[in-house]
Design a protein that fits this description.
With about 625 residues, this protein is mainly alpha-helical. It is built from 37 helices and no strands.
């Protein structure tokens, strides 16, 4: 059981534990007082508390906060001295980046040039080119602008002055503007695409406008005389036709036949259009309305995907067999190949599925279920030498990371972990993972184990925090306990403080409105965004919301998981489109890649948790093997 592993790990790690608390607790309290004081501008208090922390491992962070406060007045020699003082820590990079940015804001361009170091940050690159320009190296600066300007999204404000200089000097040609327009539309940056229209001239301006028009309204592609028969016009036709085909593939095929006759498309364009039409037509009709002599591997995969929802197993075998080996040997296509052969009474299917069932993957679990054999966990337990752990604990980066975690500064603790992992010898990876487990930093332990490729260390990668709370609400809602664990692991890795960019909060990543609606239904007080960070509240609301989805979708865990991720409105539409088909095939038809992968990961995770909890539960119950049919 998982509990035994954690008990063993704590005993092993504490071989190296110091006896007693020492001054750690008081130092942490003093550090937090000092950090708060400088944040509030109480510098006398900060200096007084800081003076007593010269031996504390986090004193460098207090010094950084003090230097950041006076960053604009720090000269070159002082900056280099501070940088050397923080060498070998994440602070070095943060400080120097901030100091350089300040030099640019103050117009100290010569100083900026002396100290600039290349990075992938567009804002920093733009500041560097501005410095070159202001230093008299105009041609050198302007020659590098097109690469920065020509991206599919808007660049940082710090780029605007340089871009204006370049644009005023007629740096934007039709070709440069076209390349950016293409990138903008591919990124669905409609506002940027509209802005770019001002840079085109002559006949290219007409094609650029058409490019924008067929993006926002694909049906305009039906006006066959609206496009020029040149390289720009033909590119627009191909783009617009593909967008229209996603909605009206049959009509798109009819229109394409007219375009193909009247316009001089290159062979590669014809192949691209017709392959995509084959895919879109197969989604609607389930058959080939357009036969080609050959298909790319990506198209073969798309055709096979569509065939999984049918019982046309000979055709499914045909598509999979035609794939190149690197595609064919993936767990996904081995599963569907084996299942298709099994349904055709071919013994090769049994061999393929039995072999796949030995792997701990979503498709391995499906294969085990199909063959009615025990799923494979392939779990591993690895001991860590106490001397290795002690050596790890003595590393300054590990000490800083653990202290930052202890004082509740998780962003900086993560920075230290990332910096540490970049520079740590591989022999210490297992020890680092084990130490992070000892700290109780659950989500980071999972991330660290994955990053160290310790995939079989399941006790670490599939933790079970808040076990009593999960047990209670699984019982209360009749939602399988492994499913609640699998969802929470996928959503937040059990981080109570997690907040998504859209506002989903807590262990089970609930949107506040969803949590409040759920609370109304179970006659409880509405939680706010703060209380949703309390695991007791979040897990209760999440379990009840998932139970509601389970009831809505015939207790089908796969469909309920899809709705938990993408919302019931989308899932209802997907169910109406593919009503009553086998659940494993329905999952393959989910149009959102994020949701498709989410459902697979949750179902696989629930299998791992089932085995670790000693619960015998298949990846799909008998009533879950087909998705429900919704009433209109």
């Amino acid at each position: 059981m998982a509990t035994h592993f954690w008990r063993w790990l704590v005993i092993l790690l504490c071989v190296a534990c110091p006896s007693g608390l020492g001054n750690d607790y008081e130092d942490r309290r003093a550090y937090k007082r000092a950090a708060f004081a400088i944040e509030m501008g109480r510098f006398r208090e900060f200096n007084r508390v800081r003076s007593g922390l010269d031996d504390y491992v986090l004193k460098s962070y207090l010094d950084f906060y003090e230097a950041r406060r006076r960053i604009s007045s720090i000269g070159e020699s002082s900056a280099e001295k501070l940088r050397g003082q923080w060498k070998g820590t994440p602070i070095e990079r943060r400080f120097f980046r901030l100091w350089l940015e300040t030099q640019a804001k103050r117009g100290r361009w010569t100083r900026y040039l002396r100290h600039y170091e290349p990075s992938g940050d567009p804002a920093a690159q733009c500041r560097y080119l501005r410095a070159l320009y202001r230093d008299g190296r105009r041609e050198e600066a302007l020659s590098q602008v097109p690469a920065l300007w020509g991206v599919g999204t808007s660049q940082p404000k710090s780029c605007d002055p340089l871009f204006k200089e370049w644009i005023d000097l007629d740096g934007v040609t039709n070709e440069i503007a076209w390349d950016r327009l293409q990138l903008a539309l591919e990124a669905n940056s409609v506002t940027l695409a509209k802005y770019l229209q001002r840079f085109f001239s002559g006949s290219v301006a007409r094609s650029a406008r058409s490019y924008y028009d067929v993006h926002v309204r694909p049906s305009r592609i039906r006006n066959i005389d609206a496009f020029t028969d040149d390289a720009y016009g033909r590119q627009v036709i191909v783009y617009g036709l593909m967008r229209y085909a996603k909605r009206e593939p049959t009509k798109a095929l009819e229109i394409w036949r007219r375009y193909r006759t009247n316009y001089q498309f290159a062979d590669y364009q014809r192949q691209y259009v017709e392959e995509n039409l084959v895919v879109e037509l197969s989604k609607v009709e389930g058959k080939l309305s357009l036969e080609l002599n050959s298909y790319s591997p990506e198209v073969l995969e798309a055709l096979a995907d569509q065939t999984t929802r049918t019982t046309n197993y000979p055709r499914l075998v045909k598509w999979i067999s035609a794939m190149p080996e690197p595609y064919r040997i993936t767990p996904k296509w081995r599963y569907w190949y084996g299942k298709a052969l099994l349904n055709l009474d071919d013994d090769e299917g049994r061999r393929v599925l039995k072999e796949l069932a030995s792997e701990r993957t979503y498709y391995g679990f499906l294969a085990a279920f199909t063959m009615n054999i025990e799923p494979a966990l392939n779990q591993e337990r690895v001991a860590v030498e106490p001397a290795t752990i002690q050596a790890l604990r003595d590393l300054p980066g590990v000490r800083r990371m653990s202290e930052l975690y202890a004082v509740g500064d998780l962003p900086n603790a993560r920075r230290e972990y990332l910096y540490l992992f970049e520079n740590l010898d591989q022999e210490y990876w297992l020890a680092l993972v084990s130490y992070i487990v000892e700290m109780g930093w659950i989500d980071q332990a999972v991330i660290a184990a994955n990053r160290a490729e310790l995939h079989d260390l399941l006790d670490v990668r599939f933790p079970m925090p808040f076990l009593d709370t999960f047990r209670r609400h699984a019982f209360e809602t009749s939602v399988p306990l492994p499913m609640l664990f699998a969802i929470s692991r996928q959503e937040s890795i059990f981080d109570p403080s997690a907040v998504s960019p859209k506002g989903a909060t807590g262990v089970m990543q609930l949107m506040p409105k969803t949590a409040q609606s759920t609370a109304d239904k179970i006659r409880e007080k509405r939680p706010d965004s703060t209380s949703l960070k309390d695991p007791l509240v979040n897990i209760r609301m999440g379990a009840h919301y998932f139970a509601e989805l389970m009831n809505r979708y015939g207790h089908n865990r796969a469909v309920a998981a899809a709705a938990y991720n993408a919302g019931p409105t989308r899932v209802d539409a997907w169910l109406r489109r593919f009503s009553g088909i086998e659940t494993d095939a329905w999952i393959e038809q989910i149009p959102l890649r994020e949701t498709k992968n989410y459902v697979k990961n949750v179902l696989a995770g629930s299998q791992v948790y089932s085995r670790m909890l000693g619960i015998s539960s298949p990846i799909m119950e008998s009533y879950e093997q087909r998705v429900p049919t919704l009433d209109d």
